[in-house]
């Protein structure tokens, strides 16, 4: 299944002339040049807002239909997907709905397993274990767009009749033709040649923030700009939940805390009870 690819033609693999002498710079100069390069990332993301918006609606539609979101990647891309997926439960109260899969499995979160990227079936086998099927969506994450495991994941998703989204940092890459929606944030050469954990990683994190936040807003997991379905599992989050209820309903702190307990710690349910007069 391996495709021949000219890696040297990828913009993420090119050399950055603006940092050619970084090994001669002092610490302040290094920080400055990295900062200047990072400033370009948001502009690159802005160029893809139409595609990002289309992906948000696709993901929200899938959630309404009972589907799940699968982030599939390797290396930095995979770790960013895992991070975004893991944070959706405490933020939006949805378990087993946003799932992060990466080459090498969970061990790859803290151990470098870069060789797993080249295994075409690595992630698709995990998708099968999770019962991936047509209502789900596969979001393929790869800075270069060349990761064999992500190609395999997206190919399997299409075999299942599921929709696919790719998030890459090169305009010409093998994932584009595998995507119903392609998000290609071209950040150009990295500060350190090929180190896509830098600008490319920042770009992918920004896009993932938009995809998960946007789809959850469209799916109704937010009231105003409040996390109405957050899971308040520590003191800070308990306090935040109570303040949300107070801000949305105008009740006093003690009453907000009581309503939160009565609603089994579901902020939205507490708000509904107060606003519906069920106190």
Give the SSE layout.
Blueprint: H1 27-46, H2 49-64, E1 69-73, H3 75-92, E2 98-102, H4 122-129, E3 137-141, H5 148-159, E4 163-168, E5 181-184, H6 199-218, H7 235-249, H8 253-262, H9 267-275
Parallel strand pairs: 1-2, 1-3, 3-4, 4-5
Descriptive overview:
There is one protein chain. This protein has 279 residues and is an alpha/beta fold. The protein is built from nine helices and five strands; from the N terminus they run H-H-E-H-E-H-E-H-E-E-H-H-H-H. It has helices at residues 27-46, 49-64, 75-92, 122-129, 148-159, 199-218, 235-249, 253-262, 267-275; strands spanning 69-73, 98-102, 137-141, 163-168, 181-184. The protein has a five-stranded parallel β-sheet with strand order 2-1-3-4-5, sandwiched between helices. Helix 7 packs parallel to helix 9. The model has no long low-confidence stretch (mean pLDDT 93).
Task: Briefly characterize the structure.
With 279 residues, the protein is α/β, with parallel strands linked by helices.
Written as H for each helix and E for each strand, in order along the chain, the element string is HHEHEHEHEEHHHH
The number of helical segments is 9
Tell me roughly what share of residues is in helical segments. 40-55%
What is the end-to-end distance?
Answer: 61 Å
Based on Cα principal axes, name the global outline: globular
Low-confidence stretches: none
Record field, number of beta strands = 5
Descriptive terms for the model:
279 residues; alpha/beta; five-stranded parallel sheet
């Amino acid at each position: 299944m391996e495709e021949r690819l000219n890696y040297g033609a990828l913009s993420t693999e090119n050399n950055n002339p603006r940092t050619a002498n970084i090994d001669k710079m002092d610490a302040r100069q290094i920080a400055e040049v990295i900062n200047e390069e990072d400033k370009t990332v948001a502009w690159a993301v802005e160029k893809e807002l139409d595609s990002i918006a289309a992906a948000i609606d696709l993901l929200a539609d899938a959630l309404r239909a009972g589907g799940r979101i699968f982030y599939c990647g390797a290396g930095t891309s995979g770790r960013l997907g895992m991070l975004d997926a893991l944070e959706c439960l405490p933020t939006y109260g949805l378990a087993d709905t946003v799932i992060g899969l990466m080459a090498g499995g969970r061990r790859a979160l803290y151990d470098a397993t870069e060789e797993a990227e080249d295994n075409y079936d690595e992630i698709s086998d995990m998708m099968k274990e999770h019962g991936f099927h047509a209502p789900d969506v596969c979001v393929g994450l790869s800075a270069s767009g060349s990761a064999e495991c992500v190609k395999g994941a997206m190919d399997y998703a299409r075999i299942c009749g599921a929709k696919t989204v790719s998030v890459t940092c090169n305009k010409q890459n093998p994932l584009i033709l595998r995507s119903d929606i392609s998000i290609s944030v071209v950040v150009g050469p990295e500060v350190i040649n090929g180190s896509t954990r830098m600008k490319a990683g920042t770009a992918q994190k920004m896009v993932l923030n938009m995809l998960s936040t946007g789809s959850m807003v469209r799916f109704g997991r937010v009231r105003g700009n409040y996390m109405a379905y957050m899971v308040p599992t520590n003191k800070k989050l308990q306090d935040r939940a109570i303040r949300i209820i107070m801000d949305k309903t105008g009740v006093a702190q003690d009453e907000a805390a009581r309503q939160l307990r009565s609603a089994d710690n579901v902020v939205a349910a507490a708000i509904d009870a107060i606003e519906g007069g069920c106190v």
